[in-house]
Amino acid sequence: MPIPADGPVAGARAGGWIPAHGAVTRAADSKAWWAKRRLVLNAALVAAGMASLTVDAALLELSRCTIPKSDLTPMTLVYQALEYLGAMAVANAAWFAAGQLERRLDAPRVPAYRRWTFGLALASSALLPFLSPLLLLARCR
């Protein structure tokens, strides 16, 4: 009896099941695909965060916006940086979850899922940091 090469279980071993070669390859491919793009995501997060803080500083310096002095302390930047590191941790956790969820999809849906998820993650990583300057503008008097 031949061992199936494309099913979720390729054969039996004493005391357990052996995953099919296709299942192992698919999991390794998935992990490699997501790991390869994590650097792009993190670079976008860092660049957007730095740009956002720059826009914040430019708005405060160049606009005629009057904000109470209590909001303009050096610790404000430290808190914003710590919040941003927390946001990066959440983004990376979501990135990890996306890779895990991919393994539950049918093989024909994987390329579309990857494109959609990567695009959504990249767009949100680039746009969400700019909520801070928008909130700053909204608070201007």
Structural features, described:
By secondary structure, the chain is mainly α. The protein has one domain. It is 70% helix and 6% strand. The chain has helices spanning 21-62, 74-102, 110-127, 131-139; strands at residues 9-13, 16-19. A hairpin with a 2-residue loop joins strand 1 (9-13) and strand 2 (16-19). The model is unreliable at 3-21 (pLDDT under 50).
Runs with pLDDT <50, length 5+? 3-21
Give the proportion of residues in helices: 55-70%
Percent strand equals 5-15%
The number of domains is: 1
> How do the strands line up in the largest sheet?
1-2
Please sum up the structure shown:
With 141 residues, this protein is mainly α. It contains 4 helices and 2 strands; from the N terminus they run ββαααα. It has one domain.
Task: Supply the key terms.
4 helices; two-stranded antiparallel ribbon; single chain; mainly alpha; elongated; 141 residues; 70% helix
